[in-house]
Each structure stands twice: as structure tokens, then as C-alpha cells.
Amino acid sequence: MTQKDITFVADFLTEHFNEAPELYNRKGKYFNVERVGQYLKDEDDDLVSPPNTEGNQWFNFLKDSTHLKESPLLFPYYPEKSLHFVKRQMEGIIDQCLQKPADVIGKSVHQAVCISLYKVSQSEDSTPQLFKLPFLWNDKTSNLHYVLFTMLENSISKIHILRRHTDTSRSVSNGILAVEFGNFLNNSINESSDSRRYSCLDAHFYDDETVTVVLKESVQQEGKERVLAQLPLS
Fold this sequence. Notes:
Layout: H1 3-16, H2 37-40, H3 57-64, H4 66-69, H5 83-108, E1 131-139, E2 144-151, E3 158-165, E4 176-180, E5 198-207, E6 210-217, E7 226-232
Antiparallel strand pairs: 1-2, 2-3, 3-4, 5-6, 6-7
Pfam families: WD40_APC4_C-half
Organism: Pomatorhinus ruficollis (streak-breasted scimitar babbler)
InterPro entries: APC4, APC4_C
């Protein structure tokens, strides 16, 4: 070790491990522990070297504020406790706040409809990802929920639109349908139907009546064409 290293260690010991007579009657060691590590101990014991809050602007502000001093909205401060203790206290309060809404919401949710989209062989070790791009939209004018999604594998050229009424007791026509992007961009009817096929890269509702889609050419070649299209729901 160099003399610089020895000096560094000596200074550290001098600063943090001086005898502290005021702590002799306390449980534990009779010296100040390293000031950062004490906050990280997962213990309920008080800190050996609590921070000095004198002159702290936030504490002075609370002390001088009649309304905030006893406000239940402010999380209590524990200057004598470690961060682990404070974390457990906060988790307990958050769990208590969320429990009632979770119970109420959980009891109010029920299955409105079940639609089979695809079947997967049970013998397969890993289920392939067949569901992609789920995008939700709520038409408040007509009280309708929409879900846009695509199915991989054999239907990459299609986008599916699921529509449900917000009132689960009511049904809507064409609850689910698919739009296929085949050769609709062909320049003439003489072009082969397989020469220009498109798959959906992304899809979002532009407004209550229009869907915006990003398409790419499915043919394996360089410079694949990208198309931004807006489709009316009608």
C-alpha cells in the first residue's frame, strides 16, 4: 500500500469510527457506523447517526405551515429509521389504499363474450405468437369499444377489427371482421394478384370513423414499398 492509501484509510477510520460517549447506553457498537451503509440495513432499529435536518428548507416550510403540518396527505418522515423501514411502511400504506378499489373492481368485472381466434396444438412445446398489434379505441359518441389486431402465420395480410357495445347487454352487427390488403393497390386488373401483396406493420384509429394503417409489400425483394393508408370504418 502507498502512503496515500494508508492516509485515506486512516482518515476514514478517524471520521467514522470515533468513540461516541453519548451512545454508550445504546444497544450495539460504541462508534458511528459508515453514514451511507446505515440507511441500507434491513433493520427496525434506530439509526446510529441520524441526519441533521437543521436548516432543511422543506422541514422549515412544514413547521411554519399550519395546514400542512398535520396533513394526512403527507407521508410521515422517520429521521431515525433506515430506508428499508420507510420502504416497508410505504408499501403497507399503498397496499391498504389499493385493496378496496381492487375488491370493488374485481367483483364488477365479468366475461361478456368469448370468441375463439385460433387453436394451437397441445403437443407443441412453445406456443407461437399469433396475436399482434392490439390497439384499443373507445367511440364515446356511439358507445362502442374497438380492438384492432393482426394474426400472424397465414393471415399477415389481414387486419381484424373487434367491435363491442359498452353496454354488455347490447350487441352490434359484425362484432368481428377482417380486412385483407391483397392486390388493392395494383395499377391494373391485368397484374397478378400475387404480384403486390401487403402486410400490416401497424394500425391505429385516426378518429371515430377512420383507421390509419402502415403497410409493407410482402414480396421478398429490396426496396419494399411502404404505404400509409386511411380506411373509413364504413
